[in-house]
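Workshop exercise sheet. Pairs work together: one partner reads the sequence aloud, the other fills in the structure field after running the prediction. Swap roles for the next sheet.
Pair: D.N. / O.F.
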Amino acid sequence: MSFNLGVELGQILVLIVVVGALNQLFQHYPHRRPVMLVLSVVFAHSAWHWMVDRFTALQQYRFNWPEWNLALLSHSLSWAILVTLAGGLLWLCRGWFEGASAAATPRELGQKSV
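Structure field:
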């Protein structure tokens, strides 16, 4: 428990230091776009190396992946259909809520239009 608490406190401390340093950098350097581009490239480069290192370590283990057969395909397609239906339902609800908010004009609400 105390180890996890120490890790989380360390992450918060690093975040405070990084945000403070970026704040100071942006206050003294008015051109933000080049700075953000360079920082993005540095972070992406570091993330790429971490990903490759972890993938190399992961390859040492053997996993029992499921064998592709008709039962697995059928199960996967069932989940794909369910996700598609849920997305369609959310899309329809979004359109319904937008239509309800667009129908409430200022005159209908008893307000004067400007």
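Discussion prompt: The chain has a mean pLDDT of 84. What would you look at next?
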